[in-house]
Design brief:
Strand content: 5-15%
CATH topology: TIM Barrel
Number of strands: 9
Number of helices: 14
Distance between the termini: 30 Å
Order of helices and strands: HHHEHEEHEHHHEHEHEHEHHEH
Number of domains: 1
Radius of gyration: 19 Å
Length: 347
């Protein structure tokens, strides 16, 4: 049983049934390149993965946006590709181009992966979680996370991000049993990874399924909903009260089925989700989170202020967490983020 809402940090109260005014606010990718203090630490680290695996540095960048803006939650600084890297797949981040992985495109190639080898790298992330929790005040929650099995698989199979996730979709069609083995492996290791974050001090979790919208309805059921349910079930078996937010980007009308069938405690809504749906059927069923366009945060001014007001008006009386519809982009002016926090807190 979860403790009563009034005893919880502001971010966690919606999960205890409270429709808070103002709503909690945090932003996806709130620790990132738009902040000069982040860029300084990133340069010191040398490589992106070194930053992710160095607890002293990763905890520092996790805390930077909390110090600057006073968000209601910090989110662990890491990357969804920590999981394939820990499994033994070759992962690199190329400046200006993004992640590059040695592709795995057939059942036989899964032998290159090793679940038992993950723990040494995961332990570094768990140390970051513990450091951050120790530094945060009791009023600020700490969110852990992982990538959803489908989204992580698209990078592992494609070797990089893509517009259509064609390589993963092709393998899933051509050899569903082999692809299922990859998904099952990701469920297993991600459950351990999330559970370790909770033990280290994470008070909520988010599962990022950034490419959920690339699948037709039957494949969405098989590769998004079913693995996410297994992952949620495994985590909840060990940590039954931990709130879990699912972020099935691009799910659209399928978001309601996703919420009902996966067992998540909240759903992140992308920019394309209509407010009438987000604040209607979804908000009646679960905690909703979202969904300001990250480019409105870049633009700022009256356009941003109008949309923020519209979102807040739509969700009045609902269990709601203010966020973006995707992550902050590097060209975002830091002062626009400060203004956004001010607008939400004025509610």
């Amino acid at each position: 049983m979860r403790p009563p809402a009034e005893s919880l940090p502001h971010f966690l109260r919606p999960f205890a049934g409270e429709a808070t005014t103002p709503p909690p606010i945090w932003l996806m990718r709130q620790a990132g390149r738009y902040l000069p203090e982040y860029r300084s630490v990133r340069e010191k680290a040398g490589s992106f993965l070194t930053l992710c695996y160095t607890p002293e540095l990763a905890s520092e960048v996790t805390l930077q946006p909390i110090r600057r803006y006073g968000f209601d939650a910090a989110i662990l600084f890491a990357d969804i590709l920590v999981v394939p890297d820990a499994l033994g797949q070759t992962v690199a981040f190329v400046e200006g181009e993004g992640p590059r992985l040695e592709p795995i495109r057939a059942d036989a190639e899964l032998a290159r992966l090793n679940v038992s080898a993950t723990r040494s790298k995961y332990e570094r992330v768990f140390e970051t979680v513990a450091r951050v929790r120790q530094e945060l005040s009791r009023d600020v929650a700490l969110i852990g996370f992982c990538g959803a099995p489908w989204t992580v698989a698209t990078y592992m199979v494609g070797g990089q991000g893509s517009a259509d996730q064609a390589a993963a979709r092709a393998w899933a069609y051509r050899d569903p049993r082999g692809f299922q083995r990859l998904i099952d492996l990701l469920v297993e290791t991600s459950a351990y990874y999330l559970g370790g974050q909770v033990k280290a001090g994470a008070q909520a979790l988010q599962i990022f399924d950034s490419w959920a919208g690339s699948l037709p309805d039957d494949e969405f059921q098989r590769w998004v909903i079913a693995p996410t349910k297994l992952l949620v079930d495994r985590v909840k078996a060990q940590h039954p009260t931990i709130p879990i937010i699912g972020f099935p980007r691009g799910a659209g009308s399928r978001a309601a089925d996703y919420v009902k069938q996966t067992g998540v405690d909240g759903v992140g809504c992308d920019t394309a989700m209509p407010l009438s749906v987000m604040a209607g059927p979804l908000a009646d069923a679960t905690v909703v989170q979202g969904n300001l366009d990250p480019l409105l945060l870049v633009a700022g001014g009256e356009a941003m202020e109008r949309r923020v007001a519209a979102i807040l008006a739509a969700v009045t009386g609902k269990r709601f967490i203010f966020n973006l519809g995707h992550g902050i982009v590097p060209q975002t002016p830091p002062e626009h983020v400060a203004r956004l926090v001010e607008l939400v807190r004025k509610t």
